[in-house]
Specification:
Layout lengths: L35 H5 L8 H13 L4 E4 L3 H5 L4 H18 L5 E6 L10 H11 L3 H22 L3 E6 H4 L16 H17 L1
Parallel strand pairs: 1-2, 2-3
Helix pairs in contact: 2-4, 4-6
Length: 203
């Protein structure tokens, strides 16, 4: 995609999407013998996908200029209570701070609102059983946990730059632009991409 701050398509921007189903995604792990030989050549265990990305994939490929971090709130809300989520959130922030270089600007994007009318019935039932609140209420609760954890990083870290609150942005669009209650139509992602790129161009 080519985009520039004056609206003309001039500067080359390479975009890579890396999916993570959970905050602590165990779909990719690397277990190593932590003996002297392993440490001597600089190999590190990766307990989850994010650790693998930070310690290996991005380290050798090269970290991006901008990292848009948009956690999957809906997936997390079905599996964990707020106490566990708070621990996971602090872990994610700490490990990203440990490995991401200063030149990588991190934008945190809160999850967009969901449409209960379009969500499958079994998902709504699970939400009610697990949380005793609606999915959007849980997203608001999780946002507050993230904001509290990120606040000192915004002031003191050179990596974390912006809160992008997709939760509030999508309030007028709930059920209008939804495909299945959780995901939006393509135009939503196009508009958000252009908005995020405009932040990059003017920063």
């Amino acid at each position: 995609m080519d985009y520039s701050s004056n609206g003309k398509f001039e500067d080359n921007v390479t975009i890579e999407f890396i999916a993570m189903f959970r905050f602590v995604d165990l779909s990719m792990q690397l277990s190593l013998d932590e003996g002297n030989a392993t440490r001597r050549i600089g190999l590190l265990s990766a307990n989850n996908k994010l650790e693998y990305l930070l310690k290996y994939y991005l380290l050798y490929k090269g970290f991006p200029d901008m990292w848009i971090f948009s956690p999957p709130f809906h997936h997390e809300s079905l599996h964990h209570n707020l106490t566990v989520l708070k621990v996971d959130i602090n872990y994610l922030i700490n490990i990203m701070n440990s490995f991401a270089p200063v030149r990588t600007k991190i934008i945190f994007m809160a999850d967009a609102r969901k449409c209960n009318d379009k969500l499958p019935k079994h998902i709504l039932q699970t939400n009610k059983q697990q949380m005793n609140v609606s999915i959007n209420e849980r997203i608001d609760q999780m946002n507050r946990l993230w904001y509290a954890a990120l606040r000192p990083n915004i002031y003191n870290s050179k990596n974390w730059n912006v809160f992008l609150d997709a939760t509030k942005i999508t309030c007028p669009l709930v059920c209008t632009w939804h495909i299945d209650g959780a995901h939006y139509v393509g135009v939503w992602y196009k508009l958000m991409s252009e908005y995020i790129l405009s932040i990059l161009c003017h920063s």
